[in-house]
Amino acid sequence: MTTTSKGTIEAEISKEITQWEKDFLGRGSITVKSDILRDMIIINLKGILTPAEYVVSETKDGLLSIKRTRTACVESGVENLKGIILNITGEKVKSFHTDISTSTGERIMVFKLTNNYEKTFSS
Length: 123
Known about the structure:
The chain has four helices and four strands; from the N terminus they run H-E-E-H-H-H-E-E. It is an alpha+beta fold. The protein has one domain (6-116): Threonyl-tRNA Synthetase, Chain A, domain 2 (2-Layer Sandwich), CATH 3.30.980. The protein has a four-stranded antiparallel sheet. The longest helix has 20 residues, at 6-25.
């Protein structure tokens, strides 16, 4: 049984993901919110796109290009991301899923864990 609260762990994940963005991608999002739900950690990152990327994404080709490029950047650092989750939670990541909205500038990351991590916080 852990003595650290679910909210504390979620905040730590958000902080570390923001730092990873700055170190690996060169800039961080405006806000990051992490939620632990059953065997998943769901992260909502807002303020991902640059003003130029919003302009480029106005066309279908531009939109697809931005999605491909941004996804490739994140996927190239996925082992580091999995390491962050493992270090904070002690849980291995079974799979990783991500998508970005070129209309809102939000990215969603979902880490699927090998165990139901939320049960760690049940009384």
